[in-house]
Design a protein that fits this description.
mainly alpha, two-stranded antiparallel ribbon, Rhomboid-like fold, elongated
Length: 275
């Protein structure tokens, strides 16, 4: 598996894909604000709900709702953009914009699935809106790739990334049950995509000599050791088989084929196929 050796960046990169997402969500916020303030038209019908008001177009439209031109909506847009820039840029730089976008959409899809399961069973009529699940998928992936990296929580408190992101996800899920569905669904979608990405044999992490081994490094090291152990056992088995075949051939040269037992004949047949 290919690896990159990188130094921890002093500032997150503003990559092309991240910039496009930030511009897209800002424009969506502006359009939402114009619709509410200028035309007095609430856009709640564009949120995704699997109740009686479900419309297939909501699967797309709900992603671009952010809460309207309120203080909460503005702060949500700002902090989500900040976290996407802070944690997503390095993933995109490592994987490329195409796979990064698929990761983001996998988080969105995961939230759609969890909200559908909830809306069609225990919580009919529950709705979700916003791109929070995509951000949750990005945060989870960053935690898996660089769990030992250190950062400044709220730009003040030094903390390992895995604990920082765990706190962020909890804070994002606290406001409502809809938030819990979005965060959990986004994290599940991100985990599913990460598993798929690994199974395809793609490079998934960077490695720095200053960092302790992360989850992906430990997992790949475990798989490598298992493969080596399997090869070692196979080599030892073949060596033992060859020694046994030499003994049987020596016996044949001394006493003939009729002296062989059924077990020895079976061993010769197996050895003729494998050796």
């Amino acid at each position: 598996m290919q690896r990159w050796v990188t130094e921890e960046p002093q500032a997150p990169p503003l990559t092309e894909g991240i910039l496009r997402l930030l511009v897209l969500f800002f424009l969506a916020f502006v359009i939402e604000a114009i619709a509410i303030l200028g035309f007095h038209r609430p856009l709640s019908g564009l949120a995704l709900s699997f109740g009686p008001e479900f419309n297939p177009t909501q699967i797309l439209t709900h992603i671009f709702l952010n809460g309207g031109p309120t203080l909460g909506g503005i702060l949500s847009l700002f902090f989500q953009g900040l976290m996407l820039w802070a944690f997503g840029g390095e993933i995109e730089r490592l994987w490329g914009p195409y796979h990064f976008l698929k990761l983001f959409l996998a988080g969105i899809l995961g939230a759609i699935v969890t909200s559908a399961a909830a809306g069609l069973t225990l919580m009919p009529g529950i709705s979700i809106a916003g791109a929070t699940p995509g951000l949750a998928a990005v945060l989870l992936t960053y935690t898996v790739l660089w769990p030992e990296r250190r950062g400044l929580f709220f730009f003040m408190i030094p903390m390992k990334v895995r604990w920082m992101i765990l706190i962020i996800l909890i804070l994002m899920a606290i406001p409502s049950l809809e938030s819990v569905l979005q965060i959990s669904g986004g994290a599940l979608g991100g985990a599913a995509f990460l598993y798929y990405y690994i199974r395809k044999g793609n490079p998934v992490y960077t490695e720095s000599p200053r960092q302790s081994p992360g989850i992906m490094e430990r997992w790949n090291e475990f798989r490598r050791k298992r493969r080596l152990e399997k090869k070692r056992r196979e080599i030892e088995r073949r060596i033992d088989m060859k020694e046994e075949v030499d003994r049987i051939l020596d016996k044949i040269s001394r006493t003939g084929m009729k002296s062989l037992t059924r077990k020895e004949k079976n061993l010769l047949d197996t050895a003729s196929r494998e050796l």
